[in-house]
Amino acid sequence: MAAEGIARIGPGGALGWEAGAGEQPAALVLGDPARLYDLAALAPLAAALDRALADRAVHAVVLDLAHPATPPVTALDLLAAEAGFAVLAARIADAPKPVVALISGPVAGPWAALALAAALRVAAPGGGIGFPEARLGLLPGAGATQRAARLAGAGAALQLLLAGRMVPAAEAQAAGLIEMVTEAALPAARAAAAALAAARAGGAPVPFARDPQRGLGDPAGFLAAVAGARARLSGDLPAPWQIVDCVEAALLLPEAGGLAFERAVFEALAATPEAQALCWMAAAEAEGWDMAAAAPVPGPVAMTTEAADPAADLLAGGVPVRLLGQDVPALRTALEAIAALQEDAVAAGRMTEAARDAAWDRLSATTDATTLAGCQVGIAADGSLAVLEGALPPGALLAGFAWPLPGIGLQRHAPLDGLPLLEIATDGSSPALAAGLGLARAMGRVALPCQPGSGALPGPRLRAALWQAAEDLLLLGATPAAVDAALRGFGFATGPFEAMDRAGLTRQAPGTERLRPGLMAQLAAAGRTGLSRRRGFLAWPEGAAQGTDDPGVLALIAEERWVQGLPAPHQGGITRAEICRLALAALANEGARMLSAGVVASAGALDLLAGATLGFPRHRGGPMHWAGASGGRTGLLAMRNTLKAKAEALPPQMAGFWAPDPLWDRRIRAGRRF
């Protein structure tokens, strides 16, 4: 190989060499995007690196490590891959020839760890480095915690490693993690590699090359940054605490000892339930839906005044909106709501002032339905669907917030777990699906298509299942406050009875029509309609952050228990563990019913919905993951047995809800989880 050759790893991992000009080092370019932790993508790079290092005509190496950040399927996949990346990172760090990392685009996870192992890093302005592992319940491996701390000190390293975000190249340069950012990144990387090679051969030192141990120069400041990071941490998830421990080890241990410590911690974290659950959720989110099928949204979109939130989403996504109101006051209220949402987005940094102004310019309003004749898409709340349907031209798409509809149904969730989901209910036809996906993309939301037939959408069905299970738990001996406390202790954002009281007990929330007539209806009939009246399932004293049990409600529960033919609960009632076990079993059973009926495509989609609609804790993985988390087939069997036993013990009017769907037995026989 000539010294001026450029090694290029092309699609499929094929290795070729291109002629260059002058005394240039070898440049290895990874050109086949693959999964973030895919060892198959690593092998060609390692082989090409070995060839370049063995070639006497090559004096230095440039590695272009830009790589997409796609999450792994399981923590075990990640654990196996990390070992391979750790070996290659050590080979780069100990290479007999200078290795320069070229960061021409986003470099994430273990690929970023390889960049930190290089002698020097050169980035294009569009490049960046990031470590998503903390969001997966893990820590950045392959030496990342040790080399980041040694390069930039504890403060900068911890900001990078704990954030879980992509850090732009300029910001990383300011933190001391990248040495150079330039538009001509590849020529600069080649020149830097050649200069490093010359310096090693006895030439002049490279002015922009810095000591790879420079981050350890201020031990007191290093330890102060570690202490500050620990003081800011909260919660029980182990990964953030362990990341801080590993960064601290970079100062306290020799480099080899720090690397060994990091590896041991990585292995321990990969075995935790939290990592298994978070990796499951990340994989479910990454699977998503093929947005290539999404159809463009023709503007302007006709919308009624009840749809301020989705209108703001569409405006931010570049889609013109024409707002129809019954009268000027209704329009004024809707416009004020949209303006408030935009101001909130600006204040939170999600939108610039210029983008806000441009979005506002895309908005028009009218009280004259005849002016909507040019709109090809209309979105309305239940009561206004007929108005829009009559105003839109023939063939226009009608979307609403209920189901079934003549067009498509939408359920926009205010994300309780940070994931902006949009449920899209269709009849399964390709045009309807394409239109729904297009709306999701324009609204900046993660699409979750479903085919609910004549039933409710999946999100409301999950909510109704949790609420029904909560009511039944009262008849089995729990109190409303005890149920809420147990599920909040499990990690839910709010308890079901608090959620019911906040929504109101008049059966207007989507999905509540699926509930059996029972306590909710009796309370509403008695005027206990929820938080607005300070009386619902719970009593809400003035200024109280949480509701408390009410003696009148407890008496009503005891009376309903007698009416249903249930025995009085044993002394001490039902335990927190039993409350959680039964509530989660009911959620998983409702999910199994939807999977059986083909309402949703995957268990992962249901778990994403549970997080977005119920505040199910992400680090628990969702009800479908949780159902088998205790050991695959054994976990499913135990939960199925719980459901079966409960259905057999309850009177017929309650048993049907708890009877396990046949999908449980099919999955158990196949030795599969959901």
Automatic annotation (TrEMBL):
Pfam families (alphabetical): 3HCDH, ECH_1
Keywords: Isomerase, Lipid degradation, Lipid metabolism, Lyase, Multifunctional enzyme, Peroxisome
A molecular function GO annotation: isomerase activity
Occurrences of domain 3-hydroxyacyl-CoA dehydrogenase C-terminal (ranges): 461-537
Keyword Membrane applies: no
Cell location: Peroxisome
Family matches, as SUPFAM superfamilies: 6-phosphogluconate dehydrogenase C-terminal domain-like (SSF48179), ClpP/crotonase (SSF52096)
InterPro entries documented for this protein: 3HC_DH_C, 6-PGluconate_DH-like_C_sf, ClpP/crotonase-like_dom_sf, Enoyl-CoA_hydra/iso
GO biological-process terms attached to the record: fatty acid metabolic process; lipid catabolic process
Entry superkingdom: Bacteria
Quaternary structure, from the entry: Monomer.
Name of this protein: 3-hydroxyacyl-CoA dehydrogenase C-terminal domain-containing protein
Organism in which the protein naturally occurs: Frigidibacter albus
Taxonomic lineage from the root: Bacteria, Pseudomonadati, Pseudomonadota, Alphaproteobacteria, Rhodobacterales
